[in-house]
């Protein structure tokens, strides 16, 4: 049955307009994005199949073009639209982060980092440089590495902090393995960066480890 034949109260678009996007399921939101289904399946059926195939929205968004475009109902046009939506979301969060206090908006920081790093297939080390009011000056990818590690040099991080005249910094890196457990190397690196930056009066506020389904904060776990 086509969605247009459903009772109006059950149609995803009408539900969104009436109750708000936050009250729709992942399947319903994805169906609105897909707009149309395929032969024998509505957009909701197709959305449900895609989420079941990947396990969750995060893994769906992380899929590359070849993987997505092999599936029924997803072509190059849908893939580019999806990437555009993700990038707009990331930029909108980045703009919000620049306008507000990073410490008073921890969820925005987390959402921004998740969108920026969780889909990477190799380790990336990022710094969010903050001014004296904890407003974001800049966000930079400082180092990138292999699937298992990235080489991070405290001297280079100090140079970037001085370049931005930063008063504080938040670090983040991803674990493509999917676990957020900090390694001993992660802990040692964080302390090395903290000590090096303290020499130029830059405070390390936190270090996040990002995985597809979870985020770990060094600060919240008393590791910094």
Describe this structure in words.
The protein is an alpha+beta fold and 224 residues long. It is built from nine helices and five strands; from the N terminus they run αααααααββαβαββ. The chain has a five-stranded mixed beta sheet with strand order 2-1-3-4-5, with helices on both faces. α8 (154-163) packs across α9 (184-198). The longest helix is centred in the middle third of the chain and has 24 residues, at 76-99. The chain is elongated, with a radius of gyration of 20 Å. It starts with 11 loop residues before the first helix and ends in a 7-residue tail after the last strand.
| Secondary structure: number of strands | 5
Query: Could you describe the largest sheet, including whether it forms a barrel?
Result: 5 strands, mixed
**Gap between N and C termini, in Å?**
56 Å
Radius of gyration: 20 Å
How would you name the oligomeric state of the polypeptide chains in this document?
single chain
Strand content: 15-25%
Total helical segments: 9
Order of helices and strands: HHHHHHHEEHEHEE
Structural class, from secondary structure content?
Answer: alpha+beta
List keywords for this structure.
224 residues; alpha+beta; 5-stranded mixed sheet; 5 strands; 15% strand
Question: Secondary structure elements and their pairing?
Answer:
Layout: H1 12-19, H2 26-34, H3 43-54, H4 57-62, H5 65-69, H6 76-99, H7 106-117, E1 124-130, E2 136-144, H8 154-163, E3 168-174, H9 184-198, E4 203-210, E5 215-217
Parallel strand pairs: 3-4
Antiparallel strand pairs: 1-2, 1-3, 4-5
Helix pairs in contact: 2-3, 6-7, 8-9
